[in-house]
Amino acid sequence: MSSLETASVAGTSASPPVTPDGRYIVVRGRLWRRANPGLDDQQRKALTDLLMSARRAVGAALRARDDTALAAARARVQGAKVALGERGPVWWSDGTPDQNRRMARNTNYADWYETLGSTT
Fold it and tell me: Residue 78: which of 70, 112, 7, 4 has the closest Cα?
């Protein structure tokens, strides 16, 4: 392994924990809804590309202090996240309520989350 590869591997952070049902990741103790696993790879890539483009547009609008462009870019971010299933209606169909953005310790995932320790 080259030193560049070693540095790259060493700088890689671990993936966030995923709830046992695969619906959420946990970041700093908070649940964040994952993308719909029913999307095929091509759809997911296209939507992720749209999301990243919209996020870059948000940054550009903030730097330019352009409120109109900022609103449009944020709307594009919202649209991409809804299409991915990270926001908007839930992508599962068993009637379980959405717990997106809630602290894991205050949800029905609390016991599972406690087993992870304080590293998340």
Answer: 70
